[in-house]
Design goal:
heterodimer, A: mainly alpha, two-stranded antiparallel ribbon, 2 strands, 1% strand, flat, B: alpha/beta
């Protein structure tokens, strides 16, 4: 960087700026321009509007007159003084930790399994994973709904038949914990394929001779994994973890549809559901905007650690 | 090469413009009236919609009616989006509990001056008219109402020796006890079924005992669920539910599973809900499906049922309001309202009522408080939480009612 800066600062004196050179110099900017324009249109402008909205009183009357009323930080103070916000934030953090943890651990285990099995089994498992991946969340919710149905659900039937206890007419949506646990199974199930396939790809980068050397030195399977495999796939795991945090913190479709509006309550809110209820059901768009900005800040804090470690790994690699 | 490409693009654009202009010049200029109805009309009475459209289109040459069907769960969000985008429908069907918030916000056109344009408007059902008025002005036209009935298995009741519909709640309870004893052999059977948190049906007990949800006192809404009479109603509901409905249904709602599904699976002898529940009791049991009005705890009277219903409103931002009113007048004329009545709905005016079980049920009814923020109480599931707390025994009736009252007061008295 230093050398390049020097070159730029000394050159213009020796060579006057010609039309042709200016044109050549602008090529990179021209090439990046479409991307910047698209990003500005689909991200920066809505984001600007969102921030503006967060400082306005904007309800149904304002929606009709197309004009909000500036109220300073009133939306933020009202959200931050709302006990529901803090409870929801804590619940969402716990939900995210559980979901990300389960997704990464199960995904890695599945990837390790993929390495071990024969080619045909691997192909079958991969097809299964891709099928899971390709199922839209709304459809998956319907399937889950059927399986957990109080009266005719196959889950209650199987658990009872296998003598796990009496699950006859068991209502899986009776308590907030149970509701979010069912949502967790759906979210983790849907996220597994991406993690398993990506980690499987990363595992192929683990040098075979290192594994063999460790085994010859008497390392056990767990030690080989911990000291040889893990360091190699760590960058991939970090990326997967931070992506999963982003996704799981913002889960909406699965939670909202599976629990169902008549049972959506402050005691089972996740952040995005809380945001939806405040902004769209109560038509308080200003407050909704404030919540989404606070949500953005919390998820940024949550993933900060991972991004920093990722950057550090990047520096070492260079 | 590059110039050739540019030339080609310009030529294509020019061609497009020419085609577009000739197309619009070739056909006669038409106007479209956009109407949002709920899917109930599409599945239940498409012929009534077609009648209104034909009448309107014949009277207004060059106009077409575009009916867009909506679902209850999402139509308000869709409507909000069209308000934001200045692209509102010309006519919108609103649930009667949804009206107040939008009238208060100024979303609908004031149609007080045009009231006489609508047939039977001097005899409109009081419950529906109330939901269409705000500050003494009219913002909606009553469309139809639906009452709540008990839908039951006539064969099972006969088998238990019951020949007549019950005249009191106590008699209904003793009937259900008899049915229960006779049908012991059926797995997962309960003589009565409803989702425990179905507040539309459950709160009928509250109104039957003279209670209510909330009342306006000195400009402030005051919760009434902890009042003596409401508590008596809630307690009666709890006892009734515990005696005859399945325990697993305590935290369930009326949507999942639908009570008529439970009925069609031969798992219950009676369900309580909208009159149209008789539609879907299963082909196997269609011939042994009967209905009666839910009896009151006072012998000889009916329990007041929730008067659900719909109104038709003209969004204020609409630019074709005169035509919108005309279409509504066509859609709610006497002939069409009679057709709705034939489908099991309650027509919008008292002079059209007859002695059917539906219409009799409509005579004793209750309605939610007409407060600006009422819909937030509904969507916030405050009443459902209270009912679940009572039925699962998490709180006493009084405690649960007190919690609900404070939540309701907080929600309704927002500035």
């Amino acid at each position: 960087m230093g050398a390049a800066a020097e070159a730029v600062s000394t050159r213009p004196r020796r060579r006057p700026l010609t039309w042709r050179r200016a044109r050549r110099g602008s090529v990179p900017y021209l090439l990046i321009f479409p991307v910047i324009a698209v990003m500005a249109a689909i991200l920066a402008y809505p984001l600007y509007q969102l921030v503006r909205l967060a400082f306005q009183r904007y309800g149904l009357p304002e929606l009709i007159s197309h004009k909000g009323v500036y109220v300073g930080f009133a939306n933020f103070t009202s959200v931050l003084h709302d006990g529901i916000f803090w409870h929801t934030l804590l619940r969402t953090v716990a939900f995210t930790v559980a979901n990300v943890g389960l997704t990464i651990v199960l995904g890695t285990l599945m990837a390790l399994l993929l390495v071990r099995v024969s080619k045909w089994v691997r192909i079958l498992i991969t097809i299964g994973l891709v099928l899971v991946w390709s199922m839209p969340p709304v459809v998956a919710v319907q399937v889950w709904n059927w399986m957990t149905n109080v009266q005719n659900g196959v889950l209650n039937y199987i658990l009872t038949t296998l003598h796990f206890g009496n699950f006859d007419q068991h209502n899986w949506f009776a308590s907030p914990f149970s509701q979010l646990a069912v949502v967790t199974t759906l979210v983790v199930w849907g996220a597994l394929p991406f993690v398993a396939i990506t980690v499987y790809a990363a595992l192929s980068q683990v040098p075979h001779e290192l594994v063999e050397a460790a085994q010859i030195d008497g390392a056990r399977a767990w030690q080989v994994f911990k000291d040889v495999t893990l360091p190699v796939i760590q960058p991939v795991l970090l990326i997967l973890t931070s992506l999963s945090i982003l996704w799981d913190f913002g889960v909406f479709t699965q939670a909202y549809l599976l629990i169902g509006q008549p049972q959506i309550l402050p005691s089972n809110y996740l952040m995005s559901v809380y945001l939806w209820e405040e902004a769209y059901f109560k038509n308080d768009y200003g407050r909704g905007a404030a919540i989404s900005i606070l949500m953005l800040a919390s998820v940024a804090l949550l993933s900060l650690m991972y991004v920093r470690r990722m950057l550090r790994i990047g520096e070492v690699d260079r | 090469m590059r110039y050739r490409v540019i030339a080609a693009v310009i030529a294509a654009l020019a061609l497009g413009v020419v085609v577009a202009t000739t197309a619009s010049a070739g056909t006669k200029a038409t106007h479209t009236l956009v109407v949002w109805l709920q899917v109930d009309a599409q599945t239940g009475w498409p012929s009534v919609v077609a009648n209104a459209n034909t009448a309107f289109e014949n009277a207004n040459p060059g106009w077409t009616v575009d009916v867009q069907y909506q679902s209850w769960g999402t139509h308000l969000q869709n409507f909000d989006a069209t308000i934001a985008g200045n692209d509102v429908p010309d006519v919108i069907e609103m649930g009667n509990t949804e009206m107040t918030k939008y009238m208060a916000a100024g979303a609908f056109a004031n149609i007080t001056a045009s009231k006489s344009q609508f047939q039977n408007s001097s005899h409109w059902l009081a419950g529906l008219t109330k939901s269409s008025m705000f500050n003494g002005k009219l913002y909606g036209v009553p469309y139809y109402a639906g009452s709540r009935l008990v839908t039951y298995r006539t064969d099972q009741f006969k088998k238990a020796g019951i020949r007549k519909p019950p005249r009191s709640l106590a008699q209904f309870e003793s009937d259900l006890t008899k049915v229960k004893a006779k049908e012991k052999g059926i797995k997962h059977y309960s003589p009565f079924y409803m989702g425990g948190t179905d507040w539309y049906s459950a709160l009928s007990f509250v109104y039957d005992y003279g209670g209510s949800i909330a009342v306006l006192k000195h400009g402030k809404w005051v919760g009434q669920l902890e009042s003596k009479r409401s508590i008596a109603g809630l307690t009666a509901y709890m006892k009734f539910f515990h005696s005859y409905a399945p325990k697993s249904a305590a935290t369930l709602n009326e949507a999942n599973p639908a009570p008529y599904t439970v009925f069609s699976q031969n798992r219950t002898g009676a369900i309580f809900g909208p009159g149209w529940f008789s539609c879907c009791t299963g082909t196997k049991y269609a011939k042994v499906t009967g209905q009666f009005v839910m009896p009151s705890h006072i012998a000889g009277k009916s329990m007041p049922g929730f008067l659900g219903g719909s109104d038709l409103a003209v969004p204020k931002q609409g630019t074709q309001q005169a035509q919108a009113r005309e279409w509504i007048a066509d859609f709610t004329n006497t002939a069409n309202e009679k057709a709705l009545q034939a489908k099991g709905d309650i027509p919008n005016a008292t002079n059209l009522l007859n002695n059917s079980v539906n219409d009799r049920a409509a005579k004793a009814s209750w309605f939610v408080p007409t407060a600006k923020y009422w819909v937030n109480v509904e969507n916030g599931n405050i009443l459902r939480v209270m009912l679940a707390q009572i039925l699962t025994g998490k709180y006493s009736v009084k405690q649960a009612a007190q919690n609900a009252d404070s939540n309701i007061e907080y929600t309704l008295n927002q500035p």
